[in-house]
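=== RUN LOG ===
request id: a7f3
mode: sequence -> structure
chains: 1
length: 122
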Amino acid sequence: MTEATKPEIDFIEGPAPTELVITDITVGDGAEAQPGANVEVHYLGVDFETGEEFDSSWNRGESITFPLAGLIKGWQEGIPGMKVGGRRQLVCPPHLAYGPAGGGHRLSGRTLVFVIDLLDVK
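=== RESULT ===
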């Protein structure tokens, strides 16, 4: 597999979705992520409304391994079924991200867009 490069996220027209939107950009052909698995990913996150990047493992120059159970609900629901080598876009409304506005996190109340590359399932 060739080394992937940091994705670009196109501005999404229209109102923010109220449910999780999953879009496969590249379908992988490796092991499939299961609910509760540990996953190694590269990811980029932007604010749906502004398109402003708020986080990126690419900028840190290294992938991250997480237990899915410890992540936001949008990732817990949006990564299972994905296969290693795949790239998937998740649009997470606030209730599947950091909760409603005023929830104490700087991204509370925001709809978030992530592009996730699944590198490994452990």
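=== NOTES ===
Residues 20 and 90 are 7 Å apart (CA to CA).
The longest strand covers residues 38-47.
=== END ===
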